[in-house]
Every structure is written in C-alpha cells, then in structure tokens.
Structure of Putative ATP/GTP-binding protein:
Amino acid sequence: MKQKTNSGIFNLNILEEKITSYNTILLDLDIDWLRKPNLSSNSILPFVTENTMVEILPLNMSKEEYFKTTFIGKLENHKKLLNGIQTTPTHIIRHYYINRKYNTPIGFRSSFNQLIADIILLNEEITNFYKFKLIGTKLNYLIPTLRTAHSLFEEKEFGNNDYCKIKKNIFLDTITKNYNLSSFKSIEPTIKEEQESSEKKIYTFTGLDLYNQIVNARNGLKEERKRFDEFEKFIGKEFFNSEPIDIVAQFNINEKHENNDKNEIINIHIKDKSNYLHDLGDGIQSLIVLMYTIFIAPENTMIFIDEPELNLHPGMQRLFLEQITNNQVLTKKKLTYVIATHSNHLLDLTIEKDNISVYSFSKKENGKFQIKNVNAGNNEIIRELGVNNSSVFLANSSIWVEGISDRNYIKAFLIAYCNSEKRSMPREDIDFAFLEYAGSNLVHYEFSYEDNDNIKAFALNNKIFILADNDSGKEEKHEKHKELCELNPENLKYKSTSPYREIENLISVEIWSKAMIELCNKNKIKKEEEKISVQESISKKISKINIEDYNDKYIGEYLKALKIPELNDVFETSGRTPKSLKSEYKAYLSKIILDKTINKEITWEDFSKNETVKSITEEIYEFILKK
C-alpha cells in the first residue's frame, strides 16, 4: 500500500539525491553539472505559453553566470537547513519521512517540511531555467539599428571642401559601449577564425566597414569568394533584371600611397554602366547591408537583426523574408534568425510561414517581460500593430481573387511560368498585390466612375485584374463585369476560370498525382509502406478517369469518383452529392502546390497542360508589367 505524502516527493532516494545535488551546488557550482544532458533542451522558448513571465538574460552574460546570480542567493539561504538535515541521523529522517510520526523534534519537523517545499519549488525553477536553449552559437552575427551602407566622410579643415574618409567604425564603438559588448569580438571573422575558434563570439555588422569587407571578400579564400559571388547574383537578380553585376570597392593604389581616400567608394557595375552605391535608393542600400551579412555568414550561424524594416518598402520587406526562408543558397546553410521588429507587414507575412515563431514581449515590473506566443489564427498582436491590406495601396497593380487558395495558385502559376520562360518574377507588394473580395462581395464594388454608394474600386488601386470562379447560374454577373472592362480596358481586366467551374478544376492530372497524397487522412496513413500503397492506388485510379469529364462539376465529384477512402472527408456534401473542397483543405492543397512549385517539384510543364492556366497566367503577367 502506497504511503501518502504532502511533499510531492514519493521516493526517499530521490529526496536524498536532491539534497546531495543542491549541497554540491553550494560547495562548487560545477559547470559540467550545469550542462547535464537531462537538463538541456533543443528548442528555443519551448514552454512559453500565452502569459509566460521571464527575465531576459543580458547579452553579455553567460548562462552559467546568470544561474549563479539568480539561484545562488536562494541556495545560500538553505545552507544552514541543509547542513542541519545532513547531520541528522538517517534513521530519524527515514522514520519521519515514511511514518510521518510527530514524535521527532519540533525544530526538525518544521525545518524538514520547509526544506522539502523549498527543494520542490527550487527544482521547478531550475528545471524551467534549463528548458531554455542558450541562444547563440559559436559564431553569432548582430545587425543593429545603427547601420548604413554609406561611407562616412569629414571635412579636413572647416570650409575648404576637402574631405577624407572616416576610417574608424564609430557605429561599432557606439554599439559596443551602449550594449556592453566589449567582452565579445565584434569584427568580421575570417574563414580560418570560423574553423578554429572555440570561444563564443558576436560579430556586429553596422555596414560602415562594408567597403573593407568587399575588398577582403574579393581577395579572400575560395570559400569567401564563393559566398560573395552568391550575394552578387542575388542583387543582380532582384534589382537589375537578372543581369550579371560586379560589386567593386573602388580605389586607386597611387592615391592610397598619398593618403587620399576620398574616392574609396563602392560601385555596382552592370554592363557598361557604373552606379555609386550611395546613388541607389535607401531601400536597396538597406537590403544590401542586411543580405550581405546573411550571404557571407558560415553554416549554422545565428543572426540577430534589430528592426530589418528600416528604410524598406513593404515589398522589400516581403523580399527580405522570402529570401531568408526560401533562398536555397541560404537554407542550405541552416541559419537561425532572431528578429526584433515593429513592422506590421513582416508580422502579417509570417502568418503563412510554418517555420517562423512569433513572440510579443511586454516589459513588466521588476525587470521581467511578459511573452506571448502569437499563433496563426490568433491575430490580437497583429491587430494591435494595425495590420491590414495596406500593401494594395502601394503596389503598382492589384489582383483581385476570391480567397487565399486563389492567391497561392496565382503565385504558383507565375513562379513556374517565370522559371520556364527565364523571365523576372514580379515582386509581390511592389509590382502587384492581392485583394481578397470573397466571392459574392464583388457586387459591393463600383468599377466605373459613377457616383453611388458602392465602394470605389479605383480608389484602392488604379490597375485591377479580377479573377473569378466560373460559377454556373451566374452568367449575368460575368457578362456585367466583362462590359465594365470594355469601358476601361487599360486599367481593368476581368477573367474567369471558364470553362472550368472553379480554380481547383484547373489542376492537371500530373499535379494531382504529385499533391493528392498530401490531402489524404493522415490517421489512416501512418507508416511509410501505407503511404507507398496509397500513392500507387492514386496513380492507378487517376489514369483510369478522364478529369476533363469534371470540368464544370464540383471537384468533390472527381475525388469521389476515384474511390480513395482516405479522401472521403476532404470535400463538402449536400445530401449525397459531393461539392467543393472544405475550406481548410482548399487552403491546404493550394499551399502544398505552391510549396512544390517553389521547390520545382511542380513545373510549368505540369501547369501548362491546361490551356486556361496558360491563358490566365500570361494575361496576369502582361497586365502586371504594363505601365
């Protein structure tokens, strides 16, 4: 029969072990003990719930130092109790612990009960402390808000218009002083340092020494030159229509010997034209500072970025986020990013990313912070920052779609098309933006310049491309919008999925064969051999049914005809009649197809099997490009 206890410790050996462990800490805070495998975790902030209260470790304090400052006082308070308990004969402890007899000395009873309670509480605190992964790796990069791509100059003598370059990195000195980083190395590492260094370092990159970094990269080891080449390719692709470019730290050796450094500036050469970096837009310069650091960082580096949105247009912010999450050169390096931001645009974009965690920090009393984990679907923090569809006001054109799945399909079409045709991919939130009008709500918009109570569509954007499902029984609606387009053909275009019922009907057999397995009920496909079996069944049944027979029918009818049990729950029904995909599966399928397109598992060859997809994609692409 089990003995009931009030202490929460159900084994005397555990109690004795904990007393011994805590006494060991008091005598000597052994670093090896602090690093016990069972006390560590591989995840960052794994136990943060909606209202977690934590203290933020100073950037220049190690975890072991923080442990000492946090817990040593509490442990010292128990020292007398611990010594007293340990000098008490074991048979008295065992007798009291097992039998709960109160004929033991009163002083011993109270101290023993208090010790048990304190040990349990302290054990929970220490366990929670070790749930945190020590944020940071051997090499860490910090990109502070105090940054620029400009070289700084000062006048040699007041009023003489003769300037010299400020060689000292005053931004770095300021950051080091303000944030007490003097104990960390704060310059760019060499390849040799990356390979040989055993101490933890933070490399602070302000951009002021970008000129020197380019000189070193162009004249460095092969690995350094390779990273810089990848960076140049990125800049050329995103800002100069995929033209090959050279980023050069310009200097004249003769002037160098004469201490004349005013012409030491950064040039970007494209074809026969040369551009000074300081003549480019602030947005491009800001992105260059951010992306240079990321491209030259070695594998498994942790990169801390403070407010990446500075000087970045919302479209540039999207480009930044898409590059660090999708660029294959960067993803292969397995970098980890810790980003502090107030940008509603960046936060809005993270909702659709599975590999990004969002936390809000609110400073409370006693130096503590309240941390809230912002999950998809919980948009409270997003709303507090004023997130809305404001990007539609800033983009050059807008594409109006019925819902999120249409957005994903259009992006997939455009990506596959541009990859195949070697064309430049239009930039979302710069060249175009999506607006979701939710089907029947389109009737509330006025696409002419008449004065009535409807929402003025052209007040939102003066170039609008509308894509609609070809719902049967709504031919009059489609004709009305086509007539409106004829009144303003330059700025308004209307397109439906005709002759296909809805956008899912446009999916070719080739794409279904690659994506359908992801829709299947995961509870029924738990083993790899089961997945292989279902995939074989999908391939076999798809080949036997002509998908063109279902062009004007609900996609659920096609899926039901395949007779694949694992798909029975993905579409809606009316009575026994299958309808469209359920809303969550609509969005999920479109995301799968978009991801597979980005990864080039699905190509334009797969999409272009359908002539309507070709037509929609080409018309949207030309509409976006049209000035």
Observations:
- The mean pLDDT is 74.
